[in-house]
UniProtKB/TrEMBL annotation:
It comes from Dryobates pubescens (Downy woodpecker). This is RAD52 motif-containing protein 1. GO terms for cellular component: cytoplasm; nucleolus. Coiled coil: none annotated. CDD domains: RRM_RDM1. It is found in: Cytoplasm; Nucleus, Nucleolus. Its main location: cytoplasm.
């Protein structure tokens, strides 16, 4: 797997790489599934590596995957970790920045209450996060808002509550960062240059608010998210 990564990563940033043993009916050997962020990078890798001896004596057969099970009707967002990896690769570590506009505790604001004669429901901690991602060299700024929720483990002690709070905060921040990046388009040209555009189709009402207005209205919108 390490050897495969060394070979294919030269053609572009890899999303994932997994090597597996062949099934018993196929005979001894291995196969791998290599996923690129860019289809153009995948095509270049396929043309260059197909039929070649990459790091072993026998030539390797490399083909593009044509089956996309379960993805035809789905638009899957990248996780915050993958978004950062992609931004660092094409923009550089100092080419973009992010900041938390607000991070608010919304626990108990959705009408949760214990009624007499009814068993107590499992408690949860909720945080709402507004994140801003900026690409200064391209004049692009994008905001994302997300809700993070974590259940308090049995016991309801201070340690369990603190753990749930940190988990909810981390989840809200990660989802808000991912939401911010969903509105940013990276256009990679054949000469290697990268253009950055803001996707207006993903416009949200919060993008039109000032920071002070966002902090003041964020709790009102919490129930709707």
């Amino acid at each position: 797997q390490h050897s495969l990564f060394s070979v294919f990563s030269r053609f572009g940033l890899l999303y994932s790489l997994r090597a597996h043993s062949n099934a018993a009916v196929a005979g001894p050997g291995f196969y791998a599934v290599v996923k690129f962020y860019s289809a153009a990078d995948a095509s270049r890798a396929q043309r260059a590596c197909n039929g070649q001896s990459l790091f072993q004596e026998a030539p390797v057969k490399v083909c593009l995957c044509t089956k996309q099970r379960g993805f035809q009707q789905q638009v899957l967002a990248l996780s915050s970790t993958k978004c950062q990896e992609l931004a660092n690769h094409y923009l550089g570590f100092s080419g973009w920045s992010s900041r938390i506009v607000t991070l608010q505790n919304l626990s108990g604001l959705d009408g949760e209450s214990k009624e007499v004669g009814k068993p107590s429901q499992r408690q949860s901690v909720k945080f709402l996060c507004a994140m801003e991602v900026t690409v200064p060299s391209h004049g692009v700024c994008s905001r994302g808002v997300a809700l993070g929720e974590a259940a308090v483990e049995d016991g309801e002690g201070p340690l369990q509550f603190l753990t749930a709070t940190r988990r909810a905060q981390k989840l809200a921040v990660g989802k808000a960062l991912s939401s911010s990046f969903q509105k940013i388009l990276l256009v990679v040209l054949e000469n290697g240059k990268v253009a950055v555009e803001y996707n207006c189709c993903q416009e949200e009402p919060t993008a039109l608010l000032t920071e002070e207005e966002l902090k003041g209205l964020i709790e009102v919108k919490a129930v709707q998210l």
